[in-house]
Amino acid sequence: MKRVLTGRFMHETNTFSIQKTDMALWRRRDFHRDNEIPAAFRGTRSALGATFEAADKFGWTLIHPVSANANPSGTVTDDAFEQIGGMILNAVDNQGPIDGVLLHLHGAMVVDSYEDGEGELLARLRMKLGPEVPVVVTLDLHANVTQQMADNASALIAFRTYPHIDMYERAWQGAELLECAMRGEVKPQTVIARRPMLHGLDWGRTQQGPMAELIARGEALEANGDALVVSICAGFALADIYDVGPSVTVTVNGADPRGQAVAEEFMDHAWETREFTTVRMLSVAEAVARAREGKPGDKPLVVADYTDNPGGGGYGDATAFLKGLVDAGVERVAFHAICDPEAVMAGMRAGVGMQTTIALGGKTEPGLGGGPLRLTGEVTHLTNGRFIAYGPMGGGVERDYGPSMVFRVGGIDLIVITNNGQATDLAQFTSLGIDPTRYTTVCVKSMQHFRAAFEPIAREVILVDTGALCSGNYPPELYKNVRRPVWPLDPV
Ligand SMILES: [Zn+2]
What we know:
By secondary structure, this protein is an alpha/beta fold. Helices cover about 30% and strands about 25% of the residues. The protein has 14 helices and 21 strands. Strands 11-21-12-20-13-19-18-15-14 form a nine-stranded mixed beta sheet. Strand 5 (about 100-105), helix 5 and strand 6 (about 135-140) form a beta-alpha-beta unit. Helix 3 packs parallel to helix 7 (about 165-180) and helix 10 (about 285-290) packs across helix 11 (about 320-330). The chain binds zinc ion (ZN). Zinc ion binds near residues 140, 141, 142 and 164.
């Protein structure tokens, strides 16, 4: 029986965030050890769900020391990296021999001592395993992929959808490739190409434009047998690291020079189309005016605060748009969410059905996206914040937002949560007694992922810029570690 090491160690690090990602933050949600992992993921449409199914099909003995997926936030502490990375690395020593590895990583982890967290982990893993053991890695398409990652993994398989709804399919693709490699039928090797660009590929949007074109061309090469895997990554630009930016990696069988040629040609296209973007943001005043146009009975206008996206490291507590709605007296609004554990505690002390005044949100960095708001309202719902997400991105996996409440302020049903996270599933409203289809305006904090669940219920979708952490309007001098020159910070 083949012994396969698997696990998840996923983080998208926004190096401009002041929230350090320490062990406490990792443990706060989506963190499981050893025997907790099958119970949490078997039977779900998730990367680990697919991994368990593949193990059953191929007869693998699966070793799964840890599944850790912290919400995007600031730099990962050395202690957390060594603890969680150590769980994976120690499994090689304690539960080996290992015949193959199928790891689920994000690919944009920055650690206090390592700009390239995944590259460091994979290099250590390769040292332990030696050159022959196949290591297949799935990545988020917002990975900042490095030469060190390509050198130490046999194959890198990035998601191909944004909103990300193909984690299950990519894990299956990885499992099938790993099985072929363990049987000795192929010897996957991965090459990488990049360009001097901080971002590009329309921030990874896959509905149209260069990202969609390159993904389709890569899949055609895979189907023809010209490449084992072609992965297009848009990168994650809110990271002040040397290797930030888009990349194309191509996995070929043995040392096949066609891989590098394809990667370079694809990156030429990414470079030429670097200015292409479908992101259009409104000001707070414009978005509030649009919300006021809604009539009772209308399907919801869905307004996404692009710049306070917890999925990009935003604090989830920006208040600027909420303040605009309150000041304008807009009604029939459902709002997800303000992340503010203290406010939830204040609501719990008051109790369901009680009127109270709470200082809400804006506490992490009050200068970004609006400071705390003192609001008087009624606590209408309190939960533990746990439910199963069955939407397109949910996969039937349990979510945990910690103690949560609905606070009704005028005509606004405001959700307040303890564990930060962007709105990607309707159950983030319905689990708190809110049917979002019955509101004239639905507010979320998200750049793009919300679309999978919320576009189908919307009469229209708009994006608002509240000036929060993920605005991306950073002056060039803020980037100190990026390789230079780089577009758009320098004339290239
Ligand atoms: Zn992503």
